[in-house]
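Re: [help] complex structure
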Amino acid sequence: MKNYEIKALLIGLTKLGCSRKYTRVNKAELALDLDVSAWTLNRWIREAINRGLVNILKDGRASLYKITERGLIELLDLKKLLEDQLEDFISMKGLVTKGLSEGAYYMSIPEYEEMLHKALGFKPYPGTLNVKILEKYVPLRRILEKYEKPITTGFKKNSKEFGGVGFLRAEIINDSGRKETCAVLFIEKTKHGPDIIEVVAPVNLREKLNLKDGSEVKLIIYLSS
Amino acid sequence: MKNYEIKALLIGLTKLGCSRKYTRVNKAELALDLDVSAWTLNRWIREAINRGLVNILKDGRASLYKITERGLIELLDLKKLLEDQLEDFISMKGLVTKGLSEGAYYMSIPEYEEMLHKALGFKPYPGTLNVKILEKYVPLRRILEKYEKPITTGFKKNSKEFGGVGFLRAEIINDSGRKETCAVLFIEKTKHGPDIIEVVAPVNLREKLNLKDGSEVKLIIYLSS
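Output below.
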């Protein structure tokens, strides 16, 4: 069994919670996730157990699995590598675009305004800048959503439901290289497609960075805000 | 090409620096690291390029490789999984053991004492507690060394060389469950084997936790001090 096959198995088991405790594993599901046959999966598991990387516990007919300390070493090593080698930000380019005034609407609601102020540490200029990111960055945006920090999980007011909002700290840079601190918002109930990113800042970005619809901007979005 | 093979390739390239910039890749070395044939490696690379996960740049006869944004997505996803699922500490058991008085010696050197105090945030009791960890934890200790925070990279005094020291925050728990805050030291020029962990604390741990040589203790060592 190759080392990268072991790692694939350990990662698959980690997804199911086996790094923390003895966990029931749906082998059909795991085989599908790993894209291997049931036969191969069983062989991998047997070998991982023999190598002391995985423990098995029988619970009636079910089998529970847990990654051993030795197995965790492999994963911690990988985690360290990724932490050391991957940048802690994602950068993407896009064009300033007219929005649906959604951001401005949300920021006109005192509850949101206050929560934004508290979370961001600055009083946001009332109104968001909408950036239409290039198509190739859309999958990256999905990653961002996994890292977003919550501002609110939503609330009810006058029997109206207001959805959750999250954010990540960012910098926005115009085509002459001038930059401003800002944040990107993740609005749960947005009507925008995934190619639109809403940016808030303490200042009017259109004025400060001399932006018009169609201006190209670069966003540097930090994953650990 | 299986998804986990792609991931193995991306991880291998990451080790070589290809997540940050176009980097020359020694294919023989990479094939060895991945434990695949040169032929398989070339097939993997070709497919990764076709899938838009890796870019290639010809520089005379050499080829430089860089992981694309799409490739980084895969790795960021994996990093997030490991960050979410792996505990941020390692726990290990061991037995209190008589040391070589190395720790006490180092702590008698004013420079070390001062640097320890500054790094740890507490004035360490003069003398370390030596814990002999069980054999199965020794590989875990190697992982710890990757996470250690530097206290000093070493210095010269009276033409004598003093080696580097690092630390990680920890808790030590005795067999009745009583615990104390402490730190584990990583002493560059130690004469101890990798099975001995030196623990410093603001208090006399032997007294406070009622420890004798041979007493069993548990160490909880935090990876992000």
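The helical segments of chain B are 3-15, 27-34, 38-50, 69-85, 102-107, 110-120, 138-147, 205-208.
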